[in-house]
Amino acid sequence: MNEYVLIITMAIAFLITVLISPIFIPFLRRLKFGQSIREEGPKSHMKKMGTPTMGGVMILLSVTITSLIMTNKFNQGTISFEMILLLLVLLGYGTLGFLDDFIKVALKRNLGLTSKQKMLGQIVISVIFYIILRQNDFPTYIKIPGTSFQWDLGWGYALLIIVMLVGASNAVNLTDGLDGLLAGTAAIAFGAFGILAWYGIPQYEITIFSLAVVGALLGFLVFNAHPAKVFMGDTGSLALGGAIAAVAILTKLEVLLVIIGGVFVLETLSVIIQVISFKTTGKRVFKMSPLHHHYELMGWSEWRVVSTFWIVGLIFAALGIYIEVWIF
């Protein structure tokens, strides 16, 4: 596989998303699948009320079609267990998010699935993922980035997978709060993993999948950048979170996910810190959490917040690549 194949993969996913969006967005609008806005959120967001959501469906379609096309071309129609797992997580978490979105926008239940229902679904998909891994003799060790140190977790690896998939899907979901914020930061993170999957002993199908996500997200950004014409909803955010954790696991870069996904980690930590501080002292550390809302309430424009977080995401991605490729 050469560089041209990587570009073609991203181009196909980009074009699919760009071409289906002008059809799908008006369809969502006709169905009145519009975004509801939290009353406690920034007042500037009220103008986003009614913007079509569930646009994550376009991302899922684009990634799935592109991955299957490119896999069929370079693997003679055979789909490896890695690609099966990646699509399982992407579509499984995407379906869970779709149900959550559908309950919110179609059935007019603002909270969607209950936290217990969502958590149960996330865990079930994680367990299925682990079972397929072990049936294919996938190693249960983790390694420390930039070193040759490995630690075999044995059965503890199952717990790690559940924590990673559930944690990443929720962390990415928290990041989806501003126009283009998640699409941009996720494209950067998947791009970093795509480079690492291609580097050294190439994992072609993981590279194809990762770059298909990048292409689909860049195509989605055409319509999701400020001012957004569509939101991805939980359909997209849960799917992307689960998928990036799956990519990290299959490339044996589990620990590196914390660095490459640094923006998602910071967003999650801001929520955890805010909750702990308020419950223990009655005071808030941030004006509002997740972190991107804090900067909005400080007076930053939405575009300034988003572009700054993209830059931070690029720094984390570059650091992750540097640690894995150049240090080691």
TrEMBL record:
Enzyme class: transferase
EC number: 2.7.8.13
InterPro entries: Glycosyl_transferase_4, PNAcMuramoyl-5peptid_Trfase, PNAcMuramoyl-5peptid_Trfase_CS
Cofactor(s) demanded: Mg(2+)
CDD domains membership: GT_MraY
The family this protein is said to belong to: Belongs to the glycosyltransferase 4 family. MraY subfamily.
Subcellular location(s) per record: Cell membrane; Membrane
Catalytic activity entry: UDP-N-acetyl-alpha-D-muramoyl-L-alanyl-gamma-D-glutamyl-meso-2,6-diaminopimeloyl-D-alanyl-D-alanine + di-trans,octa-cis-undecaprenyl phosphate = di-trans,octa-cis-undecaprenyl diphospho-N-acetyl-alpha-D-muramoyl-L-alanyl-D-glutamyl-meso-2,6-diaminopimeloyl-D-alanyl-D-alanine + UMP
Protein name: Phospho-N-acetylmuramoyl-pentapeptide-transferase
Segments traversing the membrane: 6-28, 49-71, 83-107, 119-135, 155-174, 181-200, 206-223, 230-250, 256-278, 305-327
Matching Pfam families: Glycos_transf_4
Keywords from the named record: Cell cycle, Cell division, Cell membrane, Cell shape, Cell wall biogenesis/degradation, Magnesium, Membrane, Metal-binding, Peptidoglycan synthesis, Transferase, Transmembrane, Transmembrane helix
HAMAP family referenced in this protein's UniProt entry, alphabetically: MraY (MF_00038)
Organism: Aquibacillus rhizosphaerae
Membrane-topology annotation of the record: Multi-pass membrane protein
Designated gene of the protein: mraY
Domain of life of the native organism: Bacteria
Molecular function per GO: transferase activity
UniProt KW tRNA-binding keyword: no
